[in-house]
């Protein structure tokens, strides 16, 4: 029931993924969120790139902290007008350059927790920035989001 509650106000969920690293997924996720926000949409970003959470740094929010409320974690509000909701493991690390060296089950549990325990509120779009490749994290993310309004995916590629 918590899943429905915390994502009930999210109209569209969009995955950003690729088959390899370094192609610009996080940049595209950030720019897409900013463009949608500038078009008057309510936007959130869920950064499930657990080993390389770069979106907090891209939005100059790496020193922010996540807080708890009755319905779970409160996402950090970022951007010039603080109008983009962001959740990332980057906010949960002691230092922003700490490495995350976890096995699959722990990563999968955190992804499920990000989907079920973040109080997103009302959003037009939730953009999900994924790690590179086709790993367990992708399967866990899609499985956790399956009951919700998954709009689709943007596949970032390069010409080589």
UniProtKB/TrEMBL annotation:
InterPro entries named among the record's database cross-references: Mrp-like_CS (IPR000808), Mrp/NBP35_ATP-bd (IPR019591), P-loop_NTPase (IPR027417), YlxH/NBP35 (IPR033756)
UniProt KW Coiled coil keyword: no
One GO BP: iron-sulfur cluster assembly
Endoplasmic reticulum is among the record's keywords: no
Membrane-crossing residue ranges in chain numbering: none
GO CC terms: cytosol
Signal peptide (from-to): none
GO molecular function: 4 iron, 4 sulfur cluster binding; ATP binding; ATP-dependent FeS chaperone activity; metal ion binding
Keyword annotations from UniProtKB, A to Z: 4Fe-4S, ATP-binding, Iron, Iron-sulfur, Metal-binding, Nucleotide-binding
PANTHER family (UniProt xref): CYTOSOLIC FE-S CLUSTER ASSEMBLY FACTOR NUBP2 (PTHR23264:SF19), NUCLEOTIDE-BINDING PROTEIN NBP35 YEAST -RELATED (PTHR23264)
Annotated protein name in UniProt: NUBP2 factor
Source organism (scientific name): Cisticola juncidis
Gene: Nubp2
């Amino acid at each position: 029931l918590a899943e429905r509650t915390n994502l009930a106000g999210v109209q569209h969920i969009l995955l950003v993924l690729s088959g390899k690293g370094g192609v610009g997924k996080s940049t595209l996720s950030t720019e897409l969120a900013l463009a949608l926000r500038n078009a008057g949409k309510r936007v959130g970003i869920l950064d499930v790139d657990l080993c390389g959470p770069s979106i907090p740094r891209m939005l100059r929010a790496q020193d922010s902290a996540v807080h708890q409320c009755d319905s779970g974690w409160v996402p950090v509000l970022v951007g010039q007008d603080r109008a983009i909701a962001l959740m990332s493991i980057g906010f949960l690390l002691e230092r922003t350059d700490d490495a995350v060296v976890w096995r699959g089950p722990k990563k999968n549990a955190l992804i499920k927790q990000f989907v079920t325990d973040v109080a997103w509120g009302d959003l037009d779009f939730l953009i999900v920035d994924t790690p590179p490749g086709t790993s367990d994290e992708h399967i866990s993310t899609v499985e956790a989001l399956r009951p919700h309004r998954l709009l689709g995916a943007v596949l970032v590629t390069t010409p080589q």
